[in-house]
Amino acid sequence: MMWEMPVVVILALGFSVIEAFVTLPVHMASSKVLSKPVPGSKRHKYRSFLNKIVDFVRDNLFYDIQQFIVKRYRSYVLLPLFFTLFIIIFSVNKSITYTFFPEIKPEIINVEVAFVPGTSKEITTAWLREAEKAILESNQEIIDETGDTLMTRYSMSVGMSQNLGEAGFHTGMFSLTIEGEGKTTPVDTLQQRIMEKINQFESTKLSESIYVGGMQMQFGKPIEYSLTGNNDEEVRNAKNLFKELLAAVPMVNNLKDNEPLGRKELDLEMKPEADFYGLGVFEVTKQIRQGVFGQEVQRVIIGTDEVKIWVRYDKEGRQDQSDLKNMRIKSLDGKQILLSDLADYDVMRGPISLKRRDGRREIVVDAGVDDPTKVGTVNTTIVNEIIPKVKAQYPNVEIIQRGQGERSSKALASMQLNLLILFVIMILIIALSFRSVYQALLIMLVIPAGVAGGILGHSLIGIPVSILSAFGMIALIGILVNDAIVFLDQYNRNILDGLTVEEAVSEAAKSRFRPIMLTSVTTVAGMMPLIMETSFQAQFLIPMAASISFGILFGTIFILLFFPTIILASVDFRRAWNHIFNGRSEETELTENGEEMSELKPQGSAFGFYARVMLKLTASLYMYIIPVATLIMYMTKGDSTIKNIVFWILAAACLAVYIIFPVKLFNKILTSLWKKENVRPGVSIEPAIVNHKKEEERTI
User: Fold this and answer.
1) pLDDT tens-digit series, residues 517-541
2) In the β-sheet with 209-214, what is the strand arrangement from edge to edge?
3) What's the whole-model pTM score?
């Protein structure tokens, strides 16, 4: 599905690599590229102005916030995790909507009707004329209310239907061309108003089925189930029960199946007396057809024309079903016997066509859903409630999900396998590059918060998360990992230069601010025109653009501000782990000035030290108590005024904790928690960095 996009991205990245390693060095070798602008020139003033803005944001706003967080990293380290958990809980609570396939607004809406086969053309045409008035009235109402003209033209056809699957004078349809680009009124509004007016017609009650909806089914029908079995009657009865139960489910519309009933048929069951006269089913049905439809008995040449002479019952003798009682069948010896003496008969409507799948009788039932975000909910109701009831009465009938459900299952299975392969390859490449599986896994920690930001972005712009959003999030993972690699690589370089862990992460954030921020800003800015586009084609790409844009937006914030806290907290755990399993703490090293760099030093037994560190890390998360309480109140708040008041108080307190919490009180709490341990940052104990440093020393 949509394989063209990854192919284009891969080719673009491939050529960019060639550009970076072959063409760019040649350009950089030019003296004009690195030449400084002449002081006082427009170019110099322009670049100086931009540099001052970037430097001010980096050295003042960003660095101050980053230092505030880094100095309290043990309290802020889990903030990305809590953000991700909040998004998950909001999703479960239906505050963020999901649908596997997004609703693509149609460019053509069909209004179709099917009466009983055999209905005259005049009746169908009369209904279409009524429907035409309803369509024009609905469109005019929207024009008067909003000024939007959704319907640009329409056409009427008698004798055919596209979605109902029937043909003949008993069917008819309207095809409405819709122009939804740049309009504030949703296409659904026109569709719903037409449906409401049509349902009020008296003639609609006589119809077999009605369909009002778009033609686009790019991802399959929202609700589609196949009922198969070896017994035709059982399958048909199961279908009727299934449709009856499905019709009672809220939001289900355009319910139909692929077995519309045809014209009336005469079902004969021969009596034993028929054998006595030498008459079988074929001969009896042949004579009935001859009497009703006629039989050619002679051809007469009149001048240059050939005239066919047909014989059949007069109009009064073949107009009513009761005339069959008086019909006589001629035997081989010329006797005339009443039809009722030869056979029992019943008039019933037979199917237009019989469909089979894998040699078994199959009937497909499909329907639409008013709200596309509820497709998953409706299908869950069908699987958990309706299908068990049908299977209880008809155990030999197999019910299989088709349409969007079938395609979603296949897509999910394929995507899970591909994601697993993707992560394994990414971890292997990063681990080989950094010479550390631990640091490769550390980089992977930036993914959840970025993906959660992409999900939140869908809610902010008012679209559901879909399979197309997942495609964008796969691309987002690569961008987030790239930014984290750039950050961690700079951190490792700072450690090799002799900086402490806290200094290394702070300087890495400061030095990588410009490239990471500029990359993110340009990517988001490039995606915004696509997100705001209203054309039909853009609807396929907007979910992917939203995933990438908002994922990068939130991911950049978490990488620059909170990835340092993850690094610092991981160093704490590595020291505690090293002390327990090696029986010692990390060896003390000296700075260039000869000063000892201290780290967490054990007090008492190794396991006691480790347990105390874990306990204090947990206690340092006191600031999350209020947000968690706020979330609990959000999930439980209802119509109670007291609950709503408490919720908003907690929400305000939550903002106060993260924005205007007194710095002195913050430091006092942390200091009292960690007063028995030395909390000054020490050197990293990452083996890859230490080994790399020793290799350089040996080389020197």
Assistant:
1) 888 888 888 888 888 877 766 777 8
2) 151-160, 167-178, 108-114, 209-214
3) 0.67
